Structure formats: structure tokens, C-alpha cells
């Protein structure tokens, strides 16, 4: 569990963080959402002490991070940044092995771990292990960045706008990969983004920041509910708040048992926003859900579930 | 010498090649091949090339290589052809002159002197430029092909082709002096480079950690560059002489107002700026986000320096070392002015006696040393930082 207790930080005269208190439960994928200059990256960087708060404290599993040696602390926390920052003079495998090598693992263990991680992030180990980072596409490079962050199996992962520099298609692929890895490993992930859609696609919890303060926090459907603060409304297109809320809700939860012969098929894991779009596309008010036992989703079910 | 990595050079080299080749072929025809003087003190006069069989063979080879070079300038493919032809032309021209002088000297005379005429010298110079231009067209550095040409010339010399040249006679008379001067020159260059490194490395490190010191440090290092080298050597004479008088132990160690000490200190002073500039830029090659990623993975400050900053900056730093080393070889020539020895001794003696051969006897080894140092460090840089 990560806990921020009244954390403040100032850069000269600028107050970047003003008494932010936030608890991120173990195993959560918490998205820090905010516009540029809202303080979200600064807050993230207080966890691995790349930023030292001027007041307040940050604890990790109950331990004050200020009491832990910064290098030891960072080796126990995965860190992914927007520009990836792979070492250009080292191969993909050497990049992934950075932290295990610092921790003094033996060679066989490192090699096995590197191959397992490359496979986990969707890169064929034999094809990518020895490539120099300069030959990778942006999406491949960030997959390697993710593998590097996971290398020593840290319980916590910090991600600072990890997918913001990628094209929309690649971004969705990597978001799907991250969701899968989160589900498989149960890591506590703190992810910074300014993209509302990304926040809704990934978050199990959302914390919205503005002007160095925490302005809203909770499960996405609540934060994007009718009581959403003005900052949240401003971040989404006018009137689109309700639709964005659908993107935070699983379609399966709104479905009713029983088959719907002939109805369009909604893929497993789809959100209510996907369901609504599929209904509009086919001009029908009923969808069949992929999977067993057979279930179906109606307009009434959708509205009933999305009502706050 | 053109910059070996200048991208514009790829385009600039090609059009220069053909006129250079043509001028190199015409120069000896128009301005003469060899000159002969009755003795060392009389100015030489142009002489005609004798028509012996070896001379004619060398002459034919020269024109053939020149022709190939011209054709290669027209169609620069394969890329090595122009450089091979230029090296061939250099060797054939040198052989023509060497064999020609042997045949042209009056039989039995030990005081008569023969030397290449202006046309032959100009031809050799133009061919060296053509060689450099061809290397630039290929996209490489001219140091290696020039070194190849010099090795070829050395082989011809070892075979006795140049024995009748005035330069060779001068060399035979001063073989011991020459060996001593080369060793002294190498010693001066190496000592000043080491002294400069001893100053530049810690001061650059300090300036890197405390950026406020950097301005002052680099200002002093650049300020030294403005002082003419002879003036700097002269300025060092008085304080070093005073030091040696005050501390006789220093004098016993060889420190004094004249001799190698002021030369080494003066040369090192000039090398500090290129070295420090290279070290500081090298330390800054790694971009900020990469350093942030490295720190975020838990690399210690030492790990960031050794694992990220130094490997990424190695190319820039080796480039600075290469520049400073070539500069050290060149500047060591001036050590002779304060009694520091080295090949400059021969050059300045030659200037004093108006003896061109003696000047060349000093200049050629300096040239060869510079090229060897440049080529060696270029090879090293390519291995360390491809």
C-alpha cells in the first residue's frame, strides 16, 4: 500500500503539491489524472524519492520512504517514463537486466527472467533479446521499458505518462497488455496520465489533481458520476461525461442470464460504452455476450446499471 | 586536412578530384622534375630528366596512374580506385625523381647536390590533396591512405631509390641527430599531453560538479589560446629560472628557464582547452530523460557516471584526445626555440642556414608522426564508440 500523508512540495515560489493525502490500496491500478502542471508527476516522483517533499510524508507498506536508502528504494520499485529511456549502448536484454544486475543475481537466473519478461510484454525473446534499442519502434521500446521495470519483480510500479507518445492504435495495444499484466501479477500500479479515456480504460481507482491539490478520488464510475467536480467536467468534452462513465463500467455486470439468438455478439471484457456503440451500429436494443453460460444485454439493463 | 566526418565533404570532394589530378600530371612537365647544384651552398638549377631505362619506366607508370586517377574522378566507382591510383602516382613520381637524380649527378662528385624541382614538389602536394579528396568522396578519413603512401615511400627509400637525393645525403650525415630528435619530439608530445590530462581531467570533473566554476575555468583555458606560443614560452623563462634558482633540487631534476620544462608546460597549457572542452561535452552527451531513467532504476551516482555518461560520451572525449594529441605533435616543433629539443631543432637550424633539405628532414617526420597519431586514435575511437 502506498500512502501520501499531507504531502507538499514547492519549486522555488511555485507550490507544486499542496497537502495531498491519498491512499493507494495494494493491488490497485490507481490513475493520477490531471492537466499539465497539476502536480501529478511530482506526486508520483515522491514515491521513489526523485522528488523529496518539503512537508508531509510518503509511506510504502507502512515504511516512511525517507528512511530508506534511495538506491535500495528505487531498485524495489518499477519505473516507466514517457520517453522510455532505454540505454542506447546496451542490448534489449541488457536493458531489461539492469536492476537484477544491480541486485547481483547470477547469470542463469537473469537470462531466464529476461526471456520470461520479454514474452510477458509480448516480444518474442529470441527475436528481440540482442537487438539495440535504436532498431525498435516506439511501441516495442515501451514494451521493453515495461519489462525492465518489472525485472526484479517489484511489488509497486510507477508509470509516468507511459503511453502518451504512442499512436492511438499502439497505445490501445499497450493498455491491453498492461491490464493483462496487472491482472496476472497483482502489482500495485500508480500511473500518471492526462488522457481521460486512458484513465477509464485502465483504472481501478482514479485520483484527479488540479493546481497541486487532490480534487476527487475513488472508483472511476463514482468520480465520473453526476457529482463530478468542475475540473473533471472540463477535462471531458461538454456533455460527454455520461458516455465516459459508461467506459468505466463492465458490460458483464449489467447483463441478464439467457440466450439472445441472432443478436450481435459483444466480446468478453467489453465495457458499457462498447455495448452502446455496438447497439447503435446494428440498430438493435439487444446484444448477446460472448462466453458461457449464455447471457444477454438490453438497453434497459444498460440504463439501469449506468444510473448513478 | 579536411574534416573526415564532415557530411558536406561527400559532395565537396568529387568536383575537386579531376582538376587536382590534371594539375598534378601537368606540374612536373611545366615546372621541372629535378634540380642540380654544384654544392650545398649554391642555389640549385632545373635540370632535364636523363633518359635511362629505369627512369623511363617510372615515368610511364606515373602517367598511367595519373590517367587512371583522372578516369576515377570521372566515374568514382569502385571507391578505392581513385585512392589506389593516387598512391601509385605518388610512388611513381617519387621514383622518377629519385632514379632521375641518381643518373643526373656528375659521376664521382661528392659535393654536388640534386633535389626534386618545384614541379615535382607541387605534383606530390597536389597528389596528396587528390588522395584526401578521394578519401572524402569515399566518406572516410584520409589519414590511412596517406599513411599508406608514406609507407610506400619509406619502402622505396629502404630500397635505395632516394640515395642520390640531397635530402637522403643530409639524412645520412645526420642519422644520429635525427633519431635523437624523433625520440625527443615523441617525449615532448607525450609529456605535454600527460601534463595537460593531469590538469584537465580533475578540473573538468570539478567544473562538471560545480557549474559555476566552469565559466572561470574555460575562460582561463581560452585566454591561454590567445597568447602566441613563442610568447608563452618566453614568458615562462623568467619564473621557471627563478624557481630553479630558489630551489636547487628542481634544477637537479632538469627544471629551468630553458630546456624541455618550459616547452612541456607551455604546450600543455594549449592542450587544456580542447581536452577540457571534450571531457565536459562528453559528460553531457547523455540526455536528461535517460539519466532520469537510470536514477529511477536505482543506479548510484557512480553507476550513472560509469554506466551511462562515460560510455555515451566516449566518442566525443576520444575525439578531443585525438585533436589534442595531433596538436601536441605539431606544437612540440616550437620547443626548439627554448632549447627543448625535438624535430624543431632540425627545422630551425635549416631555416638559419637556408638549407631546405634540413628543414624537410625535420618536417617529414613531424608530418608522419601527426598522421600516425591521428590514424591510430581514429581507429581506437571507431572501436570504442562506433
UniProtKB/TrEMBL annotation, chain A:
Q: Which Gene3D superfamilies match?
A: P-loop containing nucleotide triphosphate hydrolases
The keyword Nucleotidyltransferase belongs to this UniProt entry's keyword annotation: no
| Signal sequence residues | none
Could you tell me the keywords of this UniProt record? ATP-binding, Nucleotide-binding, Transport
| Domain ABC transporter positions | 2-236
Which GO biological process annotations does it have?
A: quaternary ammonium group transport
Please list the GO terms describing molecular function.
ATP binding; ATP hydrolysis activity
The record, for SUPFAM superfamilies, names: P-loop containing nucleoside triphosphate hydrolases
Q: Its domain of life? A: Bacteria
Pfam families named among the record's database cross-references: ABC_tran
Provide the family line: Belongs to the ABC transporter superfamily.
This protein is called what? ABC transporter ATP-binding protein
Q: Which organism is it from?
A: Muricoccus nepalensis
TrEMBL record, chain B:
Q: Where in the cell is it found?
A: Cell membrane
Q: Does the keyword Ion transport apply?
A: no
Q: Which GO terms describe its cellular component?
A: plasma membrane
- The organism's superkingdom is given as Bacteria
Q: How does it sit in the membrane?
A: Multi-pass membrane protein
Q: Where are the transmembrane segments?
A: 12-34, 55-74, 80-105, 117-137, 143-165, 186-209, 262-283, 328-352, 358-381
Claim: Membrane is one of the keywords in the record: yes
Report the main location listed first in the record: membrane
In this chain the ABC transmembrane type-1 domain maps to 182-377
**Which UniProt keywords are listed?**
Membrane, Transmembrane, Transmembrane helix, Transport
Please give a single GO biological process term from the UniProt record.
Answer: glycine betaine transport
* Pfam families in UniProt: BPD_transp_1 (PF00528)
- Family, per entry: Belongs to the binding-protein-dependent transport system permease family.
Protein name, per record: ABC transporter permease subunit
List the source organism. Muricoccus nepalensis
